Amino acid sequence: MDALKGFKTIAGLALLMVALHVLNVATGYSLLAFGLVPRTLQGLFGILTSPFLHASFAHLSANLVAFLILGTLVMIEGLNRFVTVSAIIILLGGSLVWLFGFSGVHVGASGWVFGLWAYLLSRAWFHRSWSNLITAGVVAVLYGGLVLGFQPRQGVSFEGHLFGAFAGFIAAKVLLSTPRNGFNAG
């Protein structure tokens, strides 16, 4: 894959998040109306829009650094793989938050980040190679603290974190696991 194209895609998504947040701040956080609101008709659209919206600059910056790094590590497999993994994470993770999340507006790329994190860790399990194991080890060391994001805290969508990670695992399972044919050759 053209590394420059992959970098442009990740950087473009990050810049989109920044631009949307600047617009959100300039309009008195009016874009939060497009967040994911569980079990509401308007909240369905939020499944697609909420990963790009953030509640503050601190919230945005916390997600951007991890998104840039983890997204790039997934992008190494190619643009199509990144898009497919991201679509599974956003759609499945968001749908689960919509179905089971606590009431309120859920916004932020952290579900996406947790999904990318879980995908990279799960990839080492389903597609064993030295490069995947080394990547998973580095991701585990650098971002092992993300596990703390599964703890319920006021004002934090731990459901987004949990369901995003679950969706990342499912993405790895669907895209990387090999079907078992019931017998061993040999």
From TrEMBL:
UniProt subcellular location: Membrane
Q: Which residues form the Peptidase S54 rhomboid domain?
A: 44-176
TM segments?
A: 12-37, 57-75, 82-101, 107-126, 133-150, 156-176
Q: Its GO biological process terms?
A: proteolysis
Mind telling me which Pfam families this protein's record contains?
Rhomboid
According to the UniProt entry, its GO molecular function terms are:
peptidase activity
Q: Which UniProt keywords apply?
A: Hydrolase, Membrane, Protease, Transmembrane, Transmembrane helix
Provide the membrane topology annotation.
Answer: Multi-pass membrane protein
Provide the E.C. number(s) assigned to this enzyme. Answer: 3.4.21.105
Main localization of the protein described in the UniProt heading:
membrane
Q: Which family does it belong to?
A: Belongs to the peptidase S54 family.
Protein name stated in the entry: Rhomboid family intramembrane serine protease
Task: Give the organism's phylogenetic lineage.
Answer: Bacteria, Pseudomonadati, Pseudomonadota, Gammaproteobacteria, Pseudomonadales
